[in-house]
């Protein structure tokens, strides 16, 4: 029986809610796997003509809200730049490449396929296994901007709440609000187009604050599916007008003190890395992560998380 064709809007950018589940039993996506999957999403979001609006990576599935731009938005200079990013500056870029990749890199199915295949290869190698990792083909639905979009994004961010993993979305670093809070939206991965244009708000921090308010208020409503946010937590956030203080940000980001393999000044981290990099099985230079909220402090992930 032939598969149903995916809905697309070829004449304008379209927002999709994507859901993909694993084929394995239990919860095969642990912390290290979630970090890797997010790295892969981040990488391909810089190749494809997409904006990442939100995500939640759970133990056996993941959600992604993405805006995909049609073929007409793939201008030659931008395709060429992404081609160099993908294949290197020295690889020739010709007319055939322009035709091929302007279509490929504006295709939702190709975007998700590359993410899933890349992760499958990583997972199988890491766990010394063969075979399928993902289950049935991913689900996707077109989402209207505005009120529908912000509700859908809140639904995604509330996944770890409904699952009873954390009390607040910010406590879960593999969802949008957790990523905003714990990393300061590292590398600009997330667009802050939360469907709130009708509020006429253009200050990024204020947009995130209002979105956080919407998520909290929505999360406190019992929809009959999974756990809800503790009303005491919501009330406490209300009193703070849903702002996150500097001390709160530091507390969220202090996970680096437990998740890092090395932490300290940049020169110190580099010195230690030079002494242990032979254990990584790679000659690549390591990029160190600034610890948000602490001036001059850097971290390197544990060796097991590379």
UniProtKB/TrEMBL annotation:
A molecular-function term among this protein's GO annotations: DNA binding
Ranges of residues in domain Transposase IS200-like: 12-159
Residue ranges of coiled coil: none
SUPFAM superfamilies: Transposase IS200-like
One BP term from GO: DNA transposition
InterPro entries xref list: Transposase_17, Transposase_17_sf
Name listed for the protein in its UniProt record: Transposase IS200-like domain-containing protein
Organism: Desulfonatronospira thiodismutans ASO3-1
């Amino acid at each position: 029986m032939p598969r149903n064709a995916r809905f697309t809007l070829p004449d304008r950018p379209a927002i999709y809610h994507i859901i993909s589940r694993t084929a394995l039993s239990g919860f095969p996506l642990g912390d290290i796997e979630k970090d890797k999957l997010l790295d892969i999403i981040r990488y391909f979001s810089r190749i494809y003509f997409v904006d990442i609006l939100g995500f939640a990576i759970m133990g056996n599935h993941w959600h992604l809200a993405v805006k995909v731009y049609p073929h007409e938005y793939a201008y030659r200079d931008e395709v060429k730049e992404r081609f160099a990013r993908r294949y290197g500056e020295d690889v020739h870029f010709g007319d055939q490449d322009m035709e091929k990749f302007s279509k490929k890199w504006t295709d939702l199915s190709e975007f998700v396929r590359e993410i899933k295949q890349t992760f499958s290869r990583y997972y199988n190698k890491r766990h010394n296994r063969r075979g399928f990792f993902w289950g049935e083909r991913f689900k996707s639905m077109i989402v209207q901007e505005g009120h529908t979009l912000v509700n859908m994004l809140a639904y995604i961010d509330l996944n770890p709440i409904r699952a009873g993993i954390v009390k607040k979305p910010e406590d879960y670093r593999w969802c949008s609000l957790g990523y905003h809070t714990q990393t300061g939206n590292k590398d600009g991965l997330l667009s802050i187009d939360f469907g709130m244009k009708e509020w006429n708000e253009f200050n990024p921090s204020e947009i995130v604050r209002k979105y956080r308010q919407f998520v909290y208020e929505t999360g406190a409503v019992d929809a009959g599916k999974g756990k809800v946010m503790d009303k005491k937590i919501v009330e406490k956030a209300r009193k703070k007008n849903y702002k996150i203080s500097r001390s709160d940000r530091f507390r969220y980001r202090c996970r680096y003190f437990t998740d890092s393999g090395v932490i300290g000044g940049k020169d110190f981290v580099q010195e230690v890395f030079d002494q242990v990099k032979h254990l990584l099985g790679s000659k690549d230079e390591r990029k160190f992560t600034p610890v948000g909220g602490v001036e001059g402090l850097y971290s390197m992930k544990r060796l097991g998380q590379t």
